[in-house]
């Protein structure tokens, strides 16, 4: 070689020199300038590329893990729902209720299969009281929101409406209304109106209460109140209901049959409305 190589270093498996050198003796080409900085710089670039590649692989693995976890979660939800349905079927078998008939019946529209057995038990009294054959779910506070606005939006102007309240302690009661007003107003003298109880420790069977309670709707902007049936009950947006002490005089029965007490708010788990047809 032309010119001596000075300071030859071994960096891992890479050899480099600290001074320029001519690659072949007698070559007329210009001297190739290669420095330790050039070699290290190339190594850094390759290292960065490798890091980026590793990061990409890690992101793909994390995404794949997330997808697997999501699928597992969905599978668990499906299994949970199937387990609940099976549990309900076993209960119905012990009670002599045919689950297939419940699934196939079309009297309650919009109700999940898992809940149909409950409503199926009360179909006959509800049909008798309302003189209607079919009940279509058009409002559910758990999915539509428990506000005056959501209630009004879905029910204003509707006819033959069955309202139903479920309390945390297991009371189930409600009311029937021939018509829901189109705006913030009150409706009285509804000849077909009545209150009812489907589940109460104070009653041995579903019971209908005749009276002349006044239905009152609130403005959409109302924050606290949802609806009132004067001398009956009021629903509030904080998931509570209150039965009035005047229930006794208007509907000719003890108000404890509804929620066990009067003039005191009780927690509810759901408030729904059926359109009766």
Automatic annotation (TrEMBL):
It comes from the Eukaryota. This is TLDc domain-containing protein. InterPro entries: TLDc_dom. Keywords: Coiled coil. Residues 59-105 form a coiled coil. Residues 113-201 form the TLDc domain.
């Amino acid at each position: 070689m032309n010119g001596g190589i000075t300071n030859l270093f071994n960096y891992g498996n890479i050899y480099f020199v600290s001074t320029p050198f001519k690659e072949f003796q007698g070559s007329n080409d210009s001297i190739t300038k290669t420095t330790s900085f050039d070699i290290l710089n190339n190594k850094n670039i390759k290292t960065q590329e490798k890091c980026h590649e590793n990061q990409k692989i890690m992101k793909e693995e994390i995404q794949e893990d997330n997808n697997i976890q999501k699928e597992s979660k969905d599978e668990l939800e499906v299994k949970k729902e199937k387990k609940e349905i099976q549990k309900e079927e076993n209960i119905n078998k012990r009670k002599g209720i045919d689950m297939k008939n419940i699934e196939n019946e079309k009297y309650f529209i919009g109700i999940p299969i898992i809940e149909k057995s409950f409503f199926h038990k009360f179909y006959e009294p509800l049909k008798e009281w309302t003189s209607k054959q079919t009940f279509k779910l058009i409002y559910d506070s758990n999915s539509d929101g428990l506000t005056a606005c959501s209630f009004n939006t879905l029910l204003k102007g509707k006819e033959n409406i069955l309202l139903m309240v479920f309390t945390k302690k297991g009371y189930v009661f409600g009311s029937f209304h021939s018509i829901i007003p189109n705006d913030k107003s009150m409706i009285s003298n509804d000849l077909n109106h009545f209150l009812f109880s489907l589940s109460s420790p104070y009653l041995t069977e579903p019971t209908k209460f005749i009276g002349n309670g006044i239905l009152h709707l609130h403005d959409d902007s109302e924050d606290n109140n949802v609806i009132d049936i004067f001398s009956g009950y009021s629903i509030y947006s904080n998931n509570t209901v209150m039965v009035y002490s005047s229930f006794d005089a208007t509907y000719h029965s003890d108000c404890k049959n509804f929620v066990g007490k009067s003039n005191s708010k009780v927690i509810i788990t759901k408030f729904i409305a059926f359109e009766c047809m």
